[in-house]
């Protein structure tokens, strides 16, 4: 059984394309193209993570691919997948340089000065500066820059990130 902590979000499926089962895939991370190890993507179906084996795909733009899954051969079959969130198995993204910021959703964040900041709930890539959206212990939201220069250590096994944020950054929130 695939668990949520074993995958990270890389995009969402759009509408069917054509009549042979292709569907548009709006992705935020092209890791599925950068590794030959993984032959499937994971989708959420009724709250359960399910693997879908890739038959073929081709890029339409820098952020959209047309993808065909095994056993999906008509636009009617593909239509069922519209809007489905797509995840990638972390085990096939073992190299840190292959990871996207979305990989860190669910990681606990510590700062060398302030201690525990909270858990990364989301990654905001809407602006030029990518931000970690952190849910603090009191339920408040904290936004901090997702920049390698602030990261001191990453413990993949414990799912934690140790950061050294500039003085004053936390007080401003």
Mind explaining what this structure looks like?
With 173 residues, the chain is mainly beta. The chain folds into two domains: 93 residues, Beta Barrel (Elongation Factor Tu (Ef-tu), domain 3); 62 residues, PRC-barrel domain (SH3 type barrels, Roll). It contains two helices and twelve strands; from the N terminus they run E-E-H-E-E-E-H-E-E-E-E-E-E-E. The chain has a six-stranded antiparallel beta barrel. Strand 4 and strand 5 form a beta hairpin. It is elongated, with a radius of gyration of 18 Å. The model has no long low-confidence stretch (mean pLDDT 88).
Short summary:
Helices cover about 5% and strands about 45% of the residues.
Count of the separate structural domains: 2
Which architecture of the largest domain does the CATH hierarchy give at level 2? Beta Barrel
- Output the structural class: mainly beta
Give the SSE order as H and E letters.
Answer: EEHEEEHEEEEEEE
Main sheet overview:
6 strands, antiparallel, barrel
Instruction: Supply the number of helical segments.
Output: 2
- Strand residue percentage: over 45%
Helix content: under 10%
Q: Would you tell me which CATH topology of the largest domain applies?
A: Elongation Factor Tu (Ef-tu), domain 3
C-alpha-based Rg, rounded: 18 Å
Subunit organisation of the chains: single chain
- Describe the global form: elongated
**How many beta-strand segments?**
12
